[in-house]
């Protein structure tokens, strides 16, 4: 009895995990499609995006880069790692 309950709980947890991954993938796909539409990129590939970036001036490029950083930034924040002020010298 205990094994079947555990298997059911793990199965439900797996379904929730897969659903969350699918939702996040759909959000990111919508974001990238919006970027292509906003900048008028007809070729829906990384090469089309690269061609458009080559045509941009510095201000447009920084704006686009900021949008991608905001969307694809890691949500995991590690406290104390990588900060120079927290590192003690020996």
Description:
The chain starts with a helix and ends in an 18-residue tail after the last helix. 69% of the residues lie in helices and 0% in strands. The model has no long low-confidence stretch (mean pLDDT 82). The longest helix is centred in the N-terminal third of the chain and has 37 residues, at 2-38. With 90 residues, the chain is mostly helical.
What is the structure about, briefly put?
The protein has 90 residues and is mainly α.
List keywords for this structure.
single chain, 90 residues, mainly alpha
SSE string: HHH
Radius of gyration: 21 Å
Helix content: 55-70%
Strand proportion, as a percent range, falls in under 5%
Q: Give the termini distance in whole angstroms.
A: 57 Å
Question: Stretches where pLDDT falls below 50 for ≥5 residues?
Answer: none
Structural class: mainly alpha
Number of strands: 0
On the 0 to 100 scale, the average pLDDT is 82
Basic shape: elongated
Number of helices: 3
């Amino acid at each position: 009895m205990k094994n079947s309950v555990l298997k059911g709980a793990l199965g439900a947890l797996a379904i929730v995990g897969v659903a969350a991954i699918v939702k996040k993938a759909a959000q990111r796909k919508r974001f990238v499609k919006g970027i292509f539409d906003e900048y008028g990129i007809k070729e829906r590939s990384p090469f089309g995006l690269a061609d458009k970036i080559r045509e941009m001036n510095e201000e447009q490029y920084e704006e686009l880069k900021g949008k991608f950083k905001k969307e694809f930034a890691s949500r995991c924040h590690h406290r104390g790692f990588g900060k120079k002020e927290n590192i003690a010298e020996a």
